[in-house]
Amino acid sequence: MTPPKGDFSSIPLNAAGRQLAMAWDPAKDEAQGNACRAFGAAGIMRIPTRLHITWANDDTLKIETDAGMQTRLLHFGEPAPHPAAAQWQGDSEASWVKQLQSRGFGFKFGGPTPGKGGALKVVTTHMRPGYLRKNGIPYSANAVMTEFFDTFTLEGDSYLIRTGVVDDPQYLTDRFITSEQYQREPDASKWRPTPCKTAPPTR
């Protein structure tokens, strides 16, 4: 469910961020071609969605979402060239972070290079301004998002845990930290790609 307009609970918004959130107008977003504002990199992983994770090539991990039909590209090694204009999913640089303890979670999506593994760390910049929530809570083009992805197995089921940290000096007074959990499904029978859709105003 989309929180009502003006619900900033748990988000450290500053005065400028609150002012912009109170001016949220989903019809205006739709008319201006900005229906995907809530589906940008800093918001998409918090929207109920399914993920399809594959290797695009030896150095690029691809995450597709059925909600909003978005594609995130996580680049390993040398940074990829920035597009001239900021995109909804921004530019993501990825690296493996080994666990120091002997019994840590491992990211086991089967990277193409032997010896890869550990937690996956992703730093995303150069994002097109979007929403942290569907009710117009903003993040700016200056925002930086750092994520950690881990997997674990419980009672035979595989889970992916994603922890995200958004730093935005323009609209936030502190870091915004969230965590989401995904359960691996046996097949793609429930995959339902749907385009971005603005949330109706809630009162």
Structure commentary:
- This protein is mostly beta strands.
- The protein has one domain (15-78, 87-186).
- It has three helices and twelve strands, in the order H-H-H-E-E-E-E-E-E-E-E-E-E-E-E.
- It has helices at 15-22, 26-31, 41-44, and strands spanning 51-57, 60-65, 67-68, 71-75, 91-97, 119-125, 130-131, 138-139, 144-154, 157-167, 176-183, 194-195.
- The strands form three sheets. It has an eight-stranded mixed sheet with strand order 1-2-4-5-6-9-10-11. A two-stranded parallel ribbon has the order 3-12.
Proportion of residues in extended strands: 25-35%
* Oligomerization: single chain
Major sheet size, sense and barrel closure: 8 strands, mixed
Tally of discrete structural domains: 1
Overall SS class:
mainly beta
Overall helicity: under 10%
Average pLDDT reading: 90
Tell me the overall shape.
globular
What's the structural blueprint in terms of helices and strands?
Blueprint: H1 15-22, H2 26-31, H3 41-44, E1 51-57, E2 60-65, E3 67-68, E4 71-75, E5 91-97, E6 119-125, E7 130-131, E8 138-139, E9 144-154, E10 157-167, E11 176-183, E12 194-195
Parallel strand pairs: 3-12, 4-5
Antiparallel strand pairs: 1-2, 2-4, 5-6, 6-9, 7-8, 9-10, 10-11
Keywords:
single chain, 203 residues, mainly beta, 8-stranded mixed sheet, two-stranded parallel sheet, 3 helices, 34% strand, globular
